[in-house]
């Protein structure tokens, strides 16, 4: 006769305990799954970036602040206006600003910009709310609603961002190699001058020669305007040096008097790569501009005296519906009226 198995009375309670432990473990794991979603379930990181050599890694802010961006359209001056406007309005409305890859490609080779870059994949997946801007600050822009906002338009007005001037100037500070190249070139123009004053001259030609009279009832700068503007600096400064850049250099050589030896035709006129011309002008002491956002930004960054072409459209020009001169040119800048007689005379 064998002795009874002493483990039999304990087998059923042990099985029951293991069963309850398994249920509790499964329940705990399900809770963990709900707290930490899988990669497939997660939203794209707002910090996802295109890992190109020119795209720096960034630190993501709190996602509760959402993502604001701006369209990347136009050439260098437009891109700078869009960037600065996004920077200011996103901060004003308490949201984190991000730029598109195209804008980074335009601005990063020149400037030490700091706004993080969205990857193309994130741009496609975010449910953006497009918000159109006109080209001057309005009160409603202080109260823009939306967590994922994409600003649209061609904003380029100091009224958006002038209260943050030092921050904007820091964003558009040049890389060291760009500064060194520009300063080296300007130093080569000094010659024997002891009290040189560099005046950057930007002459916008190109498509504006046709578009201004035919579309906007306006004019571009003529020979007389440039003579007046340069005469202002010649009368005020002992040894001015005029550094001329343009997308119409042939016209400049034919119409700007360089007989005094103080004019240097320095720009290469390449609209596809305007960075060198912009850097040269921005490292001068003062600015003569004609029309366009390129010249406006040169004057804003230089910070010296800026002379600009004023009243260059007829009073009934449709251009004045989308452009306010008082919002484009700083109050301390010096305007010289354009000659509108070619428009009035029909020539």
From TrEMBL:
GO terms for cellular component: Golgi cisterna membrane. Keywords: Glycoprotein, Glycosyltransferase, Golgi apparatus, Membrane, Signal-anchor, Transferase, Transmembrane, Transmembrane helix. It holds the Pfam family Glyco_transf_11. Pathway: Protein modification; protein glycosylation. The keyword Protein transport does not apply. It catalyses: a ganglioside GM1 + GDP-beta-L-fucose = a ganglioside Fuc-GM1 + GDP + H(+). It is found in: Golgi apparatus, Golgi stack membrane. InterPro entries: Glyco_trans_11 (IPR002516). One of its GO terms (biological process) is carbohydrate metabolic process. Its EC number is 2.4.1.-. GO terms for molecular function: galactoside 2-alpha-L-fucosyltransferase activity. It is a single-pass type II membrane protein. Its main location: Golgi. The chain crosses the membrane at residues 16-36. Residues 43-66 are annotated as: Disordered. It is an enzyme of class 2 (transferase). Belongs to the glycosyltransferase 11 family. This is L-Fucosyltransferase. It comes from Mauremys mutica.
């Amino acid at each position: 006769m064998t002795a009874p198995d002493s483990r039999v009375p304990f087998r059923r309670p042990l099985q029951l305990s293991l069963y309850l432990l398994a249920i509790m473990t499964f329940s705990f794991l399900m809770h963990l799954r709900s707290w930490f979603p899988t990669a497939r379930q997660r939203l794209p990181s707002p910090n996802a970036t295109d890992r190109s050599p020119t795209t720096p890694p960034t630190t993501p802010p709190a996602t509760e602040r959402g993502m604001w961006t701006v369209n990347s359209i136009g050439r260098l001056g437009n891109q700078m206006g869009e960037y600065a406007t996004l920077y200011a309005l996103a901060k004003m409305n308490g949201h984190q600003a991000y730029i598109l890859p195209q804008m980074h490609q335009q601005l990063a080779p020149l400037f030490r910009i700091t706004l993080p870059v969205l990857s193309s994949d994130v741009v496609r997946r975010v449910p953006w709310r497009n918000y159109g801007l006109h080209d001057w600050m309005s009160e409603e822009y202080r109260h823009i609603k939306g967590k994922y906002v994409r600003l649209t338009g061609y904003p380029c007005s100091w009224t958006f961002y002038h209260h943050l001037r030092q921050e904007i100037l820091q964003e558009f500070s040049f890389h060291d190699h760009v500064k060194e190249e520009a300063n080296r070139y300007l130093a080569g123009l000094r010659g024997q001058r002891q009290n040189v004053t560099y005046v950057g001259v930007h002459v916008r030609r190109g498509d504006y020669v046709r578009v201004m009279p035919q579309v906007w009832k306006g004019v571009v700068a003529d020979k007389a305007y440039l003579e007046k503007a340069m005469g202002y600096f010649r009368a005020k400064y002992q040894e001015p040096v005029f550094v001329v850049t343009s997308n119409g250099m042939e016209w400049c050589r034919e119409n700007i008097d360089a007989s005094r030896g103080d004019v240097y035709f320095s720009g290469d006129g390449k609209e596809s790569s305007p960075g060198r011309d912009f850097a040269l002008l921005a490292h001068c002491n003062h600015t003569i501009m004609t029309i366009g956002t390129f010249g406006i930004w040169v004057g804003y960054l230089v910070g010296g005296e800026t002379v600009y072409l004023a009243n260059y459209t007829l009073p009934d020009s449709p251009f004045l519906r989308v452009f306010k001169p008082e919002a484009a040119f700083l109050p301390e800048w010096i305007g010289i009226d354009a000659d509108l007689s070619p428009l009035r005379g029909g020539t």
